[in-house]
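Re: weekly structure request thread

Next one in the queue (70 aa):
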Amino acid sequence: MRLVPFHYAGTNDPIVYINPEHVVAVRAFTSSTHIYVSVLGKDASPSYYPVRETLEEAVLLLTASLSGAC
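Done, posted below.
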């Protein structure tokens, strides 16, 4: 299992590690990028992590990890 570090878009800006094999979508917003994972939330809504990386940076990190380039 490969984990990719991202800067969580929260108040303390901690690092969150995401398994790229569980990512189903990546979406850009004004102040963050949301990385959606295949695990559902408590209310069966999509689970996502808001991160500080741009959409392009997030996609590059995720795809590089899957191809073994990291």
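The longest strand covers residues 33-40. The chain has one domain: 4-67.
Next request, please.
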